[in-house]
């Protein structure tokens, strides 16, 4: 819990995992939520569908077909309380306690902790420019029953899982009867070029469980995410949702459904990408004039530090000055090699504050290394 509170404190400059406040059409969304709440309290007092509101599941299915290449029915979609809710639901349905799971190294620390809490044995698999090293996993953990992967934009290094590795991963999963959880945390929110289709769009054997979220694209305050279950598991996911993890309240779901149906969501994404692209370019330009060890990775800039640099101490000192870089070392498994660095959130780096914030951070780095 301490790490969660430390990484999610804010908002602050360079904070990871949250969208820019200024791009959110807050007034419009607030009006839609108010209308949905009024409709909710005046409706008959019945239990809602634990899978989520049909209107939202239909909109999500239409969006996934258009933007992520996934063809699925609304009955395969379960609305959840963000990514963590989707991960917890998937792990309950799969029931893989005491089994082995591949996990990207570096990878999202809360996913790694979630797997451990679900009593899975985590096998750290290295990541390179082509994404997770599937051959390494097949060699060192061939008996794994689960893979958790961020194929679109690897978190935190930003690489896209290559088509060759996607095919090898899916072939291996089909042959081994292993499951693959796809964390599509940024969806189509890619700053350079067109976003690659989701891994689930290539799955012909029904081994991929796709998890998406509105936390990065709209706001984490909504606590809205979704799971796309393979058709063969749809009823099991629905039963688990009904008994253990029903969807969030109907009002927020109906508001999001209206937001998507009226075209506001796609317009918001287009505007957000333009803003983030400008901020990312400005951040890289300023830092590259001062250090060579900087690269864009998804919605973050990765600032590599010298071996042995205390990135956690640097991040904590920066927090005292109103900055919130994330220590890269926290993303590595504790039993493997660690590369120190800082992750600088692009979304929370407004243009007018980039130069002063970077100067302040570089001063801290110089002082502590």
Automatic annotation (TrEMBL):
InterPro entries: Aminotransferase_I/II_large, HTH_trans_reg/aminotransferase, PyrdxlP-dep_Trfase, PyrdxlP-dep_Trfase_major. It holds the Pfam family Aminotran_1_2. Signal peptide: none annotated. One of its GO terms (molecular function) is pyridoxal phosphate binding. Residues 21-290 form the Aminotransferase class I/classII large domain. Keywords: Aminotransferase, Transferase. This is GntR family transcriptional regulator / MocR family aminotransferase. It comes from Bradyrhizobium yuanmingense. The lineage of its organism: Bacteria, Pseudomonadati, Pseudomonadota, Alphaproteobacteria, Hyphomicrobiales.
